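anyone else get weird line breaks when pasting these?? whatever heres mine. first is seq + tokens for prot A
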Amino acid sequence: MKRLVFLVAAVAIGAVLANKLLAENGYVAISFRGYLVEMSVPMLVLCVVLALAGLEAAQRIARWPREQRAARLERRRARAREDLSRGLLEMSAGRWSESELTLTRAARDAALPAVHYLAAARAADLQGAIERRDAWLGLAREAAADEPGPVLITVAEMNLKGGRIDAALEALEALEELGDLSPRALLLLARVCRQRGDFARLRELEPRLRSTRGITPAAVDEIMDNLYADMLRVATEKGGQGALAAVWDEATRAARRRPGVVVAYARGLARFGDPERAATVLRELLDSDWNEAAVLLYGELGGGDPLERLRIAEGWLRGRREDPPLLVTCARLCLNAELYGKARSYLEMSQALRPRAETAQLLAQLLEQLGEGDRAMALLKDGIALVTGRKPVLPPLKQRRFGAPRR
């Protein structure tokens, strides 16, 4: 605007100077419908410039209301962006109630209100305010009607966290109907299927999990290993030896080499009276992939020849002399073979390397049967301290004669 004023002033001054200084200013005559307009050339230039200036001014006046509305909207959105940043910082600092208020007070003015409502739902969830959380999630879903994926994933996550498995499944199925199952949503669906015990659907998901970019093969392997381990546990608890064998035969070759799957299968075999087969599968696993749970279970198996199993375990021990779980397993096998002194040595060595409540309890039971009650009691106290994380402090009791007055 200033430039236009300066231009008009310059042209006006130029026209005046031209009229004064130039000997011949030129002549312009314009005839239109019986009207004749006569003027000099500098005056014509001045009129043209004034006309252009008037047109520019009219355009600016016409644009002014729209520009004012845009400026007010930008100020509101800037305030909303500031509230979003401050609210997220408050949430990170643990001030969840303040964060919820900050995030929502200017949410309607934000460019993406759903972001504010989702963050507010997270703050309400951290406070345990389920009703408010669901209300914010509802507003977020309305605000992001064209892109419901992030909202539905958040709904599923929060319901899954709160143990509302069916509600989480409903949100994920809504995403599936929309054809918007992202890698994160697929992983959540697999988790929901596992928690519901829907093993058939989880197995159907495997091809999609493996073909989806963003999900690593290691993550899919872990999901499927957990699936077969869960199926083996269910077959052990609710089925029979036939059901256990059927699940094992159905498992992939890779899954049958995973420690969790093998341990679950071995537990089932031991429960159904086949400890020898259980010992064999555990030994095959440990020869190729060392695993603590498998080692401990190998020592807990009953039946069979304990001396033969002890020989195998002590063979492993030659390469793992300071392996506490293996020492406990050797001790259990010594107890089964009635080698009590050797069992005691193994247990004491394991407890010295890595104190564990279970090891302390086992050693205490052995010492009690060997007539060392005081030492057994001390070990039990140490085991309780390991579980609770501290030793109780009891003030010394004062000895007094019966009937003596208290002081």
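and prot B, same format (seq, then tokens)
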Amino acid sequence: MPSSDLFSIEGKTALVTGGSRGIGLMIARGFVEAGAKVYISSRKAEVCDEVAAELSAGDGTCIAVPADLSSPDECGRLASEIAGREDRLHILVNNAGANWGAPLAEFPDSAWDRVLDLNVKAVFRLTRDLVPVLEAAGTPADPARVINIGSIDGLHVPILDTFSYSASKAAVHHMTRVLAHHLAPRHVTVNAIAPGPFESKMMAATLESFGDAIRAQCPLGRIGDPDDMAGTAIFLSSRAGSYLTGAVIPVDGGISTTV
């Protein structure tokens, strides 16, 4: 196969959860522009439809399949709908997630339930339910890909009081390794991206309050941009990333190496 195709994902089919905004949108847009057929899912149907229409406005294909993945039934419905439309799914990006911040003495049990249900349980459920179509897409030379979106808050102690969020992302990182071990014989790789600070709705308040300090702390001296995230996801999804599995890749400008 020519080296010019090394980073190509043209013709592949992908599902990106939480794909209507933030990091999910960065990845979905990058996939569409790279020639993949992309399904996006998010809780708000109207927003999901608008984003899919925008990403399909050129030569690309993006299809909205709204779902609230905090619900086990909705995870199953989304998996069934994708399997009903596609015989093979080459790429699954588990990005949908939630955050919660509160001081230690005030941190509620409900914050653990909401965050772990979406950030950890939903990742497992959806991956499990989509294994048949992932397995159908994978070959020894070009496996199907699962990309879980973790966080550098799961690699180091965060500066903010996000107890359930940081614990959930550490769980995602280790679940990535466990699933990688189980799915490798089925020609499915499982890797995680651990983003640092990126411009997103989830990060907006943090960047407004602490943006200058975060930039100063970052060895590369800046906040991540959409191409940084899309590029890493495309690499993992292309032939160039076919021999990686069980990896957790920090995309953070070096922040996780300094604190």
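btw re prot B: The chain has one domain: 3-252. DSSP finds seven helices and seven strands in the chain.
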